[in-house]
C-alpha cells in the first residue's frame, strides 16, 4: 500500500479542520470585541447620566441653602438687601429712602450671588480595565474603536468647570411657587469626545416672597391714622407678631416659619414705591 497516498488525504483533512477552528475562533473573538465596544459605550453613557444625576442633586441642595440665606437677609431687612434702608437698631426703617420695594429682584440678586459660593466636586472615575475571557486588557490595545483614555482628572475638570460656570437663567412665578431654571450644562461622554450629554436643571421652590409683598400691602392699608390703629390691626392679622413702640416708630417682628420679618414703621412717613405684585391666595 502506498503510505503517501494514505497520509496526504489525512493531512489535508487535518489542515481544513485546523483552519476551520481558527476561523471560528477569530470570528468569535471579533464578535466578543464588538459586543465589548457596544457594552463599553453603553456603560460610559450610563456613567454620564449618573454624573448628571449627581449634578442635579448638588445644584438642588446648593439652591436650598442659597434660598435660606437670601430669604433670611430679605426678611431681616423688610424685603431689601442689607444696607438698603436706614436702621433703628436691628430693625430696618421702612420708608421711601429704601428705594423701590421689589423683593423679587432682590431675591434674584442674592440667590445668584449665594449659589456661586458652592463649588461642584466630581467623583467621576474612568473605565480603565476591561475583563475579556481570562485576560485583563486595556481598552487601548484590545478596543481600537474607542478613543484613548484621557484619565479621570480630564473628565472631572470638564464636569466641574461646566457646572461651576452655570448660572441661574430664569426665575418664574407659578402657582405660588418659584421655578428656577439654570443654563445648559454639557458633560463629555468618556471614550468619545465628539459625544456629549446635556442637562438643563430646573427646580421648584415655595414662593416665600409673597409673605413680604403681603406685609407691605398690609402696612399700606392698615397703618394710616395712628400707631394704636396700626398695632391693633397688625395683631389682628398676624398671630405670631411682636410690636414695640420707640418714639415715632413701631418696631415690628413677625415669625414666619424659620424666618423673622423685621421692620420699623413711622406712619407719618411715606412707604417705598412698590413694584406691582400679586396677592398670595
Q: SSE layout and pairings?
A:
Elements: H1 3-76, E1 87-88, E2 91-92, H2 103-115, E3 129-132, E4 135-138, H3 139-142, H4 152-164, E5 168-174, E6 177-182, E7 185-189, E8 192-199, E9 202-206, H5 209-222, H6 227-237, E10 241-246, E11 249-256, E12 259-265
Antiparallel strand pairs: 1-2, 3-4, 5-6, 6-9, 7-8, 10-11, 11-12
Helix pairs in contact: 1-2
Walkthrough of the structure:
It is built from 6 helices and 12 strands. Helix 1 crosses helix 2. The chain folds into 2 domains: 152 residues, no CATH class; 81 residues, no CATH class. It has a 3-stranded antiparallel beta sheet with strand order 5-6-9, with no helix packed on it. Strand 1 and strand 2 form a beta hairpin.
Could you list some keywords that capture this structure?
alpha+beta, disordered C terminus, 2 domains, three-stranded antiparallel sheet, 6 helices, 281 residues
Beta-strand percent range: 15-25%
Shape: rod-shaped
Structural class category: alpha+beta
From the N-terminal CA to the C-terminal CA, the straight-line distance is 110 Å
What's the mean pLDDT score?
Answer: 81
The helix-strand sequence is HEEHEEHHEEEEEHHEEE
Amino acid at each position: 500500500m502506498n503510505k503517501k497516498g494514505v497520509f496526504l488525504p489525512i493531512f489535508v483533512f487535518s489542515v481544513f479542520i485546523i483552519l476551520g477552528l481558527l476561523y471560528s475562533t477569530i470570528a468569535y473573538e471579533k464578535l466578543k470585541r464588538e459586543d465589548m465596544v457596544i457594552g463599553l459605550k453603553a456603560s460610559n453613557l450610563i456613567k454620564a447620566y449618573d454624573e448628571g444625576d449627581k449634578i442635579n442633586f448638588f445644584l438642588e441642595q446648593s439652591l436650598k441653602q442659597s434660598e435660606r440665606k437670601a430669604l433670611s437677609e430679605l426678611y431681616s431687612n423688610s424685603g431689601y438687601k442689607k444696607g438698603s434702608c436706614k436702621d433703628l437698631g436691628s430693625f430696618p426703617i421702612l420708608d421711601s429712602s429704601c428705594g423701590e420695594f421689589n423683593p423679587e429682584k432682590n431675591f434674584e440678586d442674592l440667590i445668584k450671588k449665594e449659589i456661586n459660593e458652592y463649588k461642584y466636586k466630581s467623583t467621576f472615575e474612568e473605565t480603565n480595565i476591561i475583563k475579556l475571557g481570562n485576560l485583563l486588557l486595556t481598552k487601548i490595545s484590545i478596543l481600537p474603536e474607542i478613543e484613548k483614555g484621557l484619565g479621570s482628572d480630564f473628565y472631572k475638570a470638564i464636569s466641574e468647570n461646566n457646572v461651576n460656570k452655570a448660572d441661574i437663567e430664569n426665575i418664574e412665578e407659578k402657582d405660588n411657587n418659584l421655578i428656577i431654571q439654570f443654563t445648559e450644562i454639557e458633560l463629555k461622554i468618556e471614550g468619545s469626545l465628539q459625544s456629549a450629554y446635556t442637562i438643563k436643571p430646573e427646580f421648584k421652590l415655595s414662593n416665600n416672597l409673597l409673605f413680604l409683598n403681603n406685609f407691605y400691602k398690609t402696612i399700606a392699608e392698615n397703618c394710616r391714622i395712628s400707631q394704636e390703629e396700626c398695632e391693633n390691626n397688625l395683631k389682628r392679622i398676624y398671630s405670631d407678631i411682636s410690636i414695640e413702640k420707640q418714639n415715632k416708630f413701631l418696631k415690628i417682628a413677625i415669625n414666619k416659619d424659620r424666618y423673622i420679618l423685621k421692620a420699623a414703621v413711622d406712619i407719618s412717613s411715606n412707604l417705598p414705591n412698590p413694584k406691582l405684585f400679586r396677592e398670595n391666595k
